[in-house]
What does this fold into?
Amino acid sequence: MKSRWINAVLAVLLAAFASMALAQETDAAPARFPRVGAYEVLKCDFHNHTKNSDGDLTSVERVDEAVKNGYDAIAITDHGSFKSYEEALPRANELGLVLIRGMETGLEEREHLVALNLDPSYQPKDPHKWALTDGQPTVFYQQEWPKLAKDAHAFVIYAHPHMGLSEPVLWAIKQGLVHGIEVKNGVVGKDWNTVYSHGTWIYPQAIDWAIEHNLTLFANSDMHETRNAQNSPATLVLAEKRSVEGVMDALRAGRTIAWFDGMLWGKQEVLAQVIESAVSVSADGAQVIIENKSPAALTAALQTETPDATTVSLQPGDRTVLPMTALGGELTIRWENLWVSSTKNLETTHKLTPAATK
It folds into this structure.
């Protein structure tokens, strides 16, 4: 009898623990952004260094670190060398990380370039030491830049754009030799002509340049030391396939979001698609339910019928319930931590009908 009673108590306890585990699993914050139509949203970092140039970690350690911190794809971009890519590729394949061949180069003490997906036959010349004018001891940038972008088929990013839209960069943009730009670089901090704006050190004008010149937007770590998991920038990439080809196709199409310091920065059409998939706005009787299905905290300023907007903070996985009477027939949200230019927040509008869910 005693044994039967003990078994019954154990069964109840196991059921309770199972229920608690299920509740915890259900209530857990989302680890990933929801799909956006045909696209998977990948967390990426396209600017990293290893011991093969001026970094502190080996190439394999850099791959392990990226996987541990939830990245889907990275590029190792040592100065003038592809050695780390060759070393790290087997480990990346083993762990399911998309690894892209990369390199950092540029004009000496001026513009730096990150080149991605280079042809393996490309042999770097004078890494970080291109000359600004012809006839110098190092290679003239107008001779080597086209080879990098055209002969090597590289996707070129203007890294930490501390020189602004200088003559070399404007020349390269017009020639179709620059394809992307960093709005956030995780290493430079308050140096390298960054601007303290939006509560952090960034290049806020980079998003405006990206819009004006049709460049792809990036937030990269430029990691040399061990990654700070709590404050490391990422580029979100909307890719059809989880592969090098899928990532590069998305970069060429400009389907990226810069994610850093509690903010998302992107072009209007891309950021709006991500939020449409990540946020649910539904009407239920006399209530409106807003749910954040993404791993990013969101701040929503609700444009209601009252004079003042109501601001709601939505942590990952959070939902808020509001009375329908305060909102009227539709709800317009200004997302205070989502930026579609250096001065403009993303706004979305949602029809509020009992059967509608967006």
User: Anything to note?
Assistant: The chain has two domains: 40-266, 279-351. Confidence is low (pLDDT under 50) at residues 1-26. The longest helix spans residues 2-27. The longest strand covers residues 330-339.
